[in-house]
Design a protein that fits this description.
Helix 2 crosses helix 3. Helix content is 35%, strand content 22%. The protein is α/β, with parallel strands linked by helices. It is built from 11 helices and 14 strands. The strands form 3 sheets. A 6-stranded parallel beta sheet has the order 1-14-13-2-4-3, sandwiched between helices. It has a 6-stranded mixed beta sheet with strand order 6-7-8-9-10-11, with helices on one face. The longest helix has 18 residues.
Length: 295
């Protein structure tokens, strides 16, 4: 308890602090994280060297989060990093995480990620904002214009939605499965006025909850953007970055970049969409950093 207070005092400093903690094993890392978050809520970003360790920690932290969603920023690839190995579901999860961070400013996020995932550059925050439709209850909106926009963004029109990137129109109802959410939403129109917004289960069709507003985000392709960003560009200045074995993370990023340079020399644009170890570590000077482990 006293150590937790000491950490909180350091994090209250105006200038970015770098702390190094040792002796935390198994679930103790998640316990400390949850304690710090609920005593002083702020954005937390946890970076691990391996995907396996990140998954274990994500599970532990979710069990302690009291219903607070813990985002997992995954890699976009099925297995190894390769231009032909993009997986739609993983792209969905990345878009969801970026949308939560970018579009819900003022609500502190908990983000867990790992080396291969942070190596990928992402679409710029401005581009993501530009490609987002915000919908509110009692707002005026033309249903045909919304349907047309969704089609332009490569949403597939179907009879029933069951996966991200689909929408359906029936009478005065539009169902949309945005890439920024785990479940689809039902938009109930009365003429050109949105009367209600409801999250629902695509299998049972039962509603989970009513909401007052909704962000619709399409599938985000980095290729559409002239300027790449990194995860750190999305994080507010007060974010606490947790590094588990920072040297391993830096070395892993550098090794991945070297491998890509060797294997895909003829695809410079693909290589440029990844960062190396120094590109990740340098911007960390702007944030509070808490290092865990021995490296």
């Amino acid at each position: 308890q006293e150590k937790t207070k000491d950490i909180l005092r350091c994090l209250d400093a105006y200038t970015p602090q770098r702390l190094h903690l040792k002796g935390l094993f198994c679930s103790s890392k998640a316990l400390l994280s949850a304690s710090l978050y609920y005593q002083k809520p702020r954005n937390f970003c946890f970076v691990f060297a391996s995907k396996e360790e990140a998954h274990y920690f994500h599970t532990d932290l979710e069990s302690l989060s009291d219903g607070k969603k813990v985002l997992f920023l995954d890699s976009s690839f099925k297995r190894e990093v390769h231009p032909e190995n993009y997986e739609n579901n993983k792209v969905h999860l990345r878009t969801e995480a970026l949308g939560e961070i970018s579009l819900k400013e003022g609500t502190p996020s908990l983000v867990v990620t790992y080396t291969e995932a942070i190596a990928e550059k992402v679409i710029s925050k401005k581009k993501l904002t530009d490609k987002t439709i915000q919908i509110k209850v009692n707002e005026e909106m033309n249903m045909d214009a919304l349907s047309e926009q969704l089609s332009l963004w490569d949403f597939e029109r179907t009879d029933f939605v069951y996966e991200a990137g689909q929408y359906a129109v029936r009478g005065g109802i539009v169902d949309v499965f945005s890439y920024a959410h785990d479940y689809p939403y039902r938009l109930d129109f009365n003429g050109n006025t949105i009367e209600s917004l409801r999250e629902f289960d695509p299998i049972t069709q039962l509603s989970h909850k009513d909401v007052m507003w909704l962000n619709i985000v399409p599938k985000i392709n980095k290729e559409e953007d002239e300027q790449f960003s990194t995860l750190l560009d999305y994080l507010p200045p007060d974010t606490l970055i947790w590094l588990k074995d920072g040297k391993d993370i830096k070395d892993g990023l550098s090794a991945l970049k070297d491998t890509l340079l060797e294997k895909f020399e003829s695809l410079p644009e693909f290589i440029q969409s990844f960062i190396g170890g120094d590109e990740f570590m340098a911007p960390l000077q702007k944030f509070h950093v808490l290092e865990l482990g021995t490296r």
